[in-house]
Amino acid sequence: MDRLHSHLPPNLPPPRRHSRPTRPVILETERLRLVPLGPEHAVDLWSVYSDPEVARYVGGESLTPESTREQTERWARAWDERGHSQSAVIWRETGELLGRIGLSFWPEWNETELGYALSRAAQGRGIAQEGARAWIDWATTNLADDHLIAVINPHNTPSTRLAERLGFTPDRPETVRDVEVVIHRLTFPR
């Protein structure tokens, strides 16, 4: 065991190491630019969340302009601490913010989630799959983890179908904020 972790009791694994990019992760696809999501995006993200159909599976009525700002502040801190987090999904052609796609660390499970929420106008056009695929490709190469998870409400059929198209498979049930969800898992080919 290395000196850094020699103070841990023998039955606890050392904390996971994450590679930290030396510059912000900006991913580009044919149609999208994925940039670090922060408080400067809170107003535009709230306009996405303010649609009840969009918010239904990502926080519902708990989402407010203030909670959206707090979310973006947490994601900005995660970018600083972990070197990855949620990205603002920008439509390259117009510069419009369509929603968010990116990674979130769940300390209670010691796992990293690929999550997304897009405006209703952006749904059904392959945008979530395009942005999620870019993040999967990045994570496969850059994370120390051997997998990603997707936390999905079992009633959210479109997200379940997208997870399956991306290669995720159902792994286990969990309860998150009193809501039953299914954790889907994508193991990296290594």
From TrEMBL:
Domain N-acetyltransferase intervals: 32-189
This protein's record includes keyword GTP-binding: no
Protein name (record): GNAT family N-acetyltransferase
Record has Transferase as a keyword: yes
One Pfam entry name: Acetyltransf_3
Region (Disordered): 1-23
GO molecular function: acyltransferase activity, transferring groups other than amino-acyl groups
Annotated keywords: Transferase
